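Lecture notes, unit on protein representations.

Consider one protein chain, 108 amino acids long.
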Amino acid sequence: MTEEFKDILVDSFQWLGDQVGQNVKIIDRLTTVKGNYDRHFTRTSQYKFIIEHFGVRFSGAVGMISGKEVHFEFKTDIIKRIERKKDRLEISSDLDVNTSRLIIFEII
């Protein structure tokens, strides 16, 4: 992991932490054909809630975001790409040789 990527990662997580109290829509895509998020290969889940907590646990390298009845976690040590545009944060991870995950956090 490069220093530049670490800086982007930290900035992105700090931004997400600053969104506590805001409405968020999370789109979570899991594909069994690495990097191909075509609907035929992908399981998609969507959540909408007000962010009550956000944090990153160093033990296990897990990011956690939660609301009143939703608790969403994702691994932070396998992130391959992270990109923020305005009120939208995209995180791409490779879970294994064939499986990829794309998580989109959108402040609404």
